[in-house]
UniProtKB/TrEMBL annotation:
Belongs to the acetyltransferase family. RimI subfamily. SUPFAM superfamilies: Acyl-CoA N-acyltransferases (Nat). It comes from Halorientalis pallida. NCBIfam families: rimI. InterPro entries: AcTrfase_RimI/Ard1, Acyl_CoA_acyltransferase, GNAT_dom, YpeA/RimI_acetyltransf. This is Ribosomal-protein-alanine N-acetyltransferase. GO terms for molecular function: N-acetyltransferase activity. Keywords: Acyltransferase, Cytoplasm, Transferase. Signal peptide: none annotated. PANTHER family: ACETYLTRANSFERASE (PTHR43420), N-ACETYLTRANSFERASE DOMAIN-CONTAINING PROTEIN (PTHR43420:SF12).
Length: 160
């Protein structure tokens, strides 16, 4: 998962506008992805999610400030939400963009009747872990060597 932040307490920045991602957003999304992760998703991975209700972008001013890719899959009769990717442009971190995106995506998955939402996060990504914990995510298990560089992933789950 991406480096994400919570709002700065004394920030005067306007709140981001969140909307579904469209094809025209993909280059900006991909650039944020590359700036945020040592192992970025390929461009084509984002193309697959265009049109999905929980592929959202946040705009600050006229530009894309961050994005989230999430979906719901069948799980024993009730959908399970999955946050697949979340990243905020380095210049926009600390302004609440990640929190706003996560809140909106959880709302989409709740509307799809997901009972729980899961995600994977790098064990070393303290900033992202704090954000997820603030939304009720709890560490359920560790996947050893999940990432190509050998780092473990923490699987975190939240009830909706």
């Amino acid at each position: 998962m991406a480096v994400v932040t919570t709002p700065a307490p004394d920030s005067d920045a306007p709140p981001p506008t969140v909307r579904e991602a469209v094809k025209a957003d993909l280059l900006a999304v991909y650039r944020i992805e590359k700036a945020s992760f040592p192992q970025p998703w390929p461009f084509a991975a984002f193309q697959r999610y265009v049109g999905e209700p929980a592929f959202l972008v946040a705009e600050v001013g006229a530009g894309v400030a961050g994005y989230i890719v999430a979906d719901s899959v069948p799980n024993h009769g009730r959908p399970l939400g999955h946050v697949k990717d979340l990243a905020v442009h380095p210049d926009q971190r600390g302004q609440g963009v990640g929190s706003t995106l996560l809140q909106r995506a959880l709302g989409v998955m709740r509307a799809q009747n997901a009972a729980e939402v899961k995600l994977e996060v790098r064990e070393s990504n303290e900033t992202a872990r704090r954000l997820y914990e603030s939304f009720g995510f709890e560490h359920r298990r560790t996947v050893p060597r999940y990432y190509d560089d050998g780092e473990n992933a923490l699987v975190m789950i939240a009830d909706l």
